[in-house]
Amino acid sequence: MEDDDHSTPKASLEVKSLEDDEHSTPEASLEVNEPEDEELEQKKPRQLKLNVWIYFKKTGRGKDGVERAICRGCKDPYRVGSTPGPKGKNYGTSHLKRHLIRCKKLKYHSLGQMFMVKQGKIQSRKIDQLVSREMLAEAIIKHDLSYSFVEYDGIRAWANYASPELIMPSRNTSVVDVQKVYFKEKEKLRQVLAKIPNRVCLTSDCWTAGTSKGYLCLIASYVDDNWKLVSKILNFCRMISPHTGVELAATIYDCLKEWGIDKKVFSITLDNATNNDSMQNILKGHLSLQQSLLCDGEYFHVRCSAHILNLIVQEGLKAANDALFRVRESVKYVKGSDARMRKFEQCVKQVGISTNLGLRLDVATRWNSTYLMLESALQYEKAFSSLQLVDRNYSHCPTSDYWIRAEKICEFLEPFHEITNLISGSSYPTSNLYFMQVWKIECMLMEKVQNPDGVIKEMASRMSKKFDKYWSK
Q: At what angle do helices 454-471 and 400-423 cross, to 10 degrees?
């Protein structure tokens, strides 16, 4: 401090006295720090601020004596100076910064939209509109959004706030972008299928929706280079009637040629239907002409095991219709209206049932839904009895004998439900494990045929005959 020409004599004297006196007072320390703080404030660099005058041009003072400036983009005028007089108003530049965000004729980049390159220079973050549209199309596909999503006012306002340069596409443009993503991914998969050295196993199904429109789905499964099972949907399309074997075979064969795998097919798995039997014979004939099937197509047609099991259990349920009638009607009655559902919930609380399992109604074409219906209804046996006492319109409450029989049927169907989930899951079992499940079914049926309960015995007998029919194939 003594060698500093800019320090005052008073400050030098006070520093010297502090060095000699270790018991200096706080007031003396405070007096010495004041000039040092002033020096630090003088050396502290100014904080970087946005220079709005890149985007505005001063035009001089108006009639009121306040300086004006216009936007270089839209030419809108703004006050930027102070009004004359000792208490004049200072307009500042905050309103100019707000205009930059709204102006559609300026390419404005705020500091939040800037990034630093390797050379240490600050540049504006440029938005690639094509990349932005592709990412938006992928988001529409991934989250199952409607195409009109891009035209929502709130979405467009948010996008404009995030970046005024971002151009939101229209609904029709989004449709085109989604199709581009589909064709790009399709080409990638076509190249993968062309490179695999092994065979491809097909799975196909055809059904009619509630709108009476037919659809066909074709799936290809193969083992990749990492020995992982991969399944890809090759086609999901409208199938115009009639759904004959000839029409189905033509549609699938054209799809195989389009993907370039018509000479790599090993097998096709189908439901047990007459038109599917005809279709696979015709398709096998087309592929045999190319001499591309192994073992002359002996293993080409594979029957869907889950569908066979469904047919077997459906045959057994025919013998239990009377036993299931009251349970099914009870569940249907409760789920028929909100008022009944609220009354049933009160009965559940009244009898003290605590379960998170809700009532489920079965579907005629899915036998495992019957098992799930029984499983859920058995949890609410007391609640149904309570509902009968408070609702005179409820006339299908099962008796105790019906509940006992429903419980036996549920126990009988449980192993079949577990096996169905196993063989129809995404992680398929090995051949040894699969054969063990089939053998387990046969053993259960042989055991239940000797059951003393007449309904269970009749169910097992019907299912056993159906099992033997498909076992021979």
A: 20
Element (H, E) at 237: strand 229-238
Backbone angles phi, psi at 77, to 5 degrees: -85, 150
| Longest pairwise C-alpha distance within the chain | 117
Is residue 378 a contact partner of residue 406, using CB atoms and an 8 Å limit?
A: yes
Q: What's the per-residue H, E or C state across 106-143?
A: CCCCCHHHEEECCCCCEEECCCCHHHHHHHHHHHHHHC
DSSP 53-73: GGTEEEEEE-TTS-EEEEETT
228: left (phi over 0), alpha (psi -120 to 50) or beta: beta
Cα angle 193, 303, 281; round to 5? 75
> Read out DSSP for 140-200?
HHHTT--GGGGG-HHHHHHHHHH-TTPPPP-HHHHHHHHHHHHHHHHHHHHHHHHH--S-E
- Work out the end-to-end distance of the chain between its first and last CA atoms, rounded to an integer number of angstroms: 105
Provide Rg for the chain, Cα atoms: 40
For residue 460, what are the contacts with CB-CB under 8 A and spacing of at least 6? 316, 412, 445, 447, 448, 449, 451
Residue 198's nearest CA partner among 221, 218, 222 is: 222
pLDDT in tens, 168-190: 899 999 999 999 999 999 999 99
Contact predicate 301/270, CB 8 Å: yes
Residue by residue, DSSP assigns 383-394 as: HHHHHHHH-TT-
Question: Distance of CA 79 to CAs 183, 195, 455, 464, Å?
Answer: 55, 69, 93, 93
Q: Are 204 and 268 in contact (CB under 8 A)?
A: yes
The predicted-structure confidence for 436-472, as pLDDT tens digits, reads as follows 777 888 888 888 888 888 888 888 898 888 888 877 7
pTM reported for the whole predicted model: 0.59
